[in-house]
Amino acid sequence: MAKILNLYSGIGGNRRLWHEGHEVTAVELDADIAKVYSSFFPNDRVVVDDAHEYLRRNFTRFDFIWSSPPCQSHSRARGKSRFPVFPDFGLYEEIVFLQRYADKSPLWVVENVIPYYGALFDGKVMGRHMWWSNFDLPVLSGGGELHREHSISELESFHGFDLSGHIFDSKKQVLRNCVYGPDGLLVLERALELLDGDRKVSTG
Hints:
alpha/beta, seven-stranded mixed β-sheet, 35% helix
């Protein structure tokens, strides 16, 4: 069993195919979205809090950390917008923090869109996303291209979530923010392989 921290959890796209039996703590700032996550993953501990600060205070308590910070200010669509905003560099604060304080342990991965301005730190581009981690990641697909024209029902089908019984704002955006479930599973399985290997070495 691994202790897993799932930051900026949303409704749990990356979490959807993870096997049960792990101790998962999900952190989501939006209370309504956190309730939806809880309905899909009732055995997880769900914390309504600022994921950025939660990471700083609690990163040593976990075996594996997944972070998917807000991506809208980095997206290629934002780079073409007539209404400019500053990119949210909390993304890079987390990468620097984890590189400095979690060089080898815990295992971690940070996921985001491919930024319109060129990434400030080297990472791996796979599918529609860019990935930073302290371990070698498997090859990920991103599930192909998703377009703004896709309907909520199409996105629900793609990600494997039925939101018809839930009422909250921006369903379409929340679904577009989901990490492709099979990629989430591949990343976790790779992390667990490494964790199991370390445990075998440490126990002789």
